[in-house]
Amino acid sequence: MATQFLRSHGINLQDEISKVQSSRDPVTPGSIPTSALSAVTEIRRVRIAGYGPELIWDVSIKSGGVVRALHDAEKARISTSDTHVVDGQNAILAPSLCHPHIHLDKSFLLYDPKYSDLSIEKGDLTEALSLTARAKARFTAEDLERRGCWLINESIAAGVTCMRAFVEVDASVRLKCLGTGLKLKHDYRDACEIQICAFAQDPLFSGEDAVEGRRLMEEALGRDGVDVVGTTPYVEASEDLMRKNVDWAIEMAMKYGEHLDLHLDYHLDANKEPMVYYVIDALHGRQWMRENRAKKIVLGHCTRLTLFTKDQWHNLRTRIGDLPVSFIGLPMSDLFMMGKPSDDRGGGERVRGTLQIPQMIQQYGFEGAIGINNVGNAFTPHGSCDPLAIASMGVGVYHAGTEHNAAILYETVSTRAKVAIGCRELNKSGTQDGGRGDFVLFRSGLVGGGRVRRTLQQVVYDPPKSRLVLYKGHAVSSSAEFQRTVMKSPAEREIEGPRLPSIESGS
After folding, report:
1. pTM of the model
2. Which of 45, 272, 322, 482 could tie 468 with a disulfide, CB 3.0–4.6 Å?
3. Rounded to an integer, what distance in angstroms lies between the CA atom of residue 119 and that of residue 374?
4. CB contact at 8 A, 441 and 46
5. Would you give the distance in Å from CA 16 to the centre of its chain?
6. Which residues contact 227 (CB under 8 A, 6 or more apart)?
7. What whole-number distance in Å separates Cα of residue 59 and Cα of residue 46?
8. In degrees rounded to 5, what are phi and psi of residue 40?
């Protein structure tokens, strides 16, 4: 009746609903001309992470690179003409964030009505693999792109300007996920650096689809835009086949000149020999540093290593030598999947089951970072796309409450994560001359006044939601508070481009 009444007055209710729904869809940054992105030439009145909270700085950016940073004590003001200036209002300026390990195609399956029948019943690794396999059989380009956009938009809004995105290649999905991943990499090229990892979650040497899986992976690695070879040795049927998987992955990375990323040793069985030793020996044996030294090696999960003694840690570090190996801890997934006691136990002591990345860095000299891995699926049903949230959680998980530990935790989701996967390295403050201007500006106070965050340590303790995100000197996402404090030149006020994804205002 209401529909008929509105139609009689010239209003099509369905059309109006469609308009409202489409207006809520996030903007895809890659669809916006570069000229419409907000070029920032100056950021005034900010605290810079890694320096004293009493110092207030002005930072000048030119052509995507930082030119200079001056603090009040120098009694100088950066002067530029026709500037696009951000008034930082004493906010904290820090290097942008990074996803060193995130699965693009499996994201948000638990939030998509299309997969509502695939709910978690047990919450273990076997079920997660099974539910994901069933979901993959239904993947379409449309839903892959929809969920991928959710992931990337939310990540950019959180401050991510670089990510390694895993897309699966196998006999089930073939190159479907890869095609979507490459499209999104292109679409978001002006807002985020996206590395595409052609990833074999399924066995490459076990089962009837193994030969076809290797053929499809080689076809994928020949595509422009693929940056990384990724496999999962632990899914093979025997240790001999796991070693074949490792050898093949190393061979492919060297053949195509790509980074290497292995899901490895994802268990807590002290009776099993860690596969990491074989990986390191194979890399040395294949002369990685001579043949492919410009590319990085990442080993993810590696929960078996949490059972190592001090001597074993020191031995592993020695065996790695000069290989560019980084370990990626994935606490959101690891803590959900690893160390769960059997039903006949009364709870008891639970093994944490995730790599102690800060300790590995500080005590043993490893390279490492932490990542989200999955979001909104059976491997990791909880959490968000914000890497800073897992750094904050790490204060408790890693017993890392000191100022130095907080700085390390931030680095593991920022600069160290970028180094691990081969993104451009920035120094601790993100204000290095010649850097490309990838920052996050964290609002220091609460809306309406009150408590103020003055240090990076406090940002890690309690991550602010209000953020301004810059990529190559351009604002790619901004909360409402920062949008109100952007000061534009008269010429720019005449040309207002479309707004990029923004996060809700708040603390």
Report:
1. 0.87
2. 482
3. 16
4. yes
5. 36
6. 164, 195, 196, 197, 258, 259
7. 8
8. -105, 125
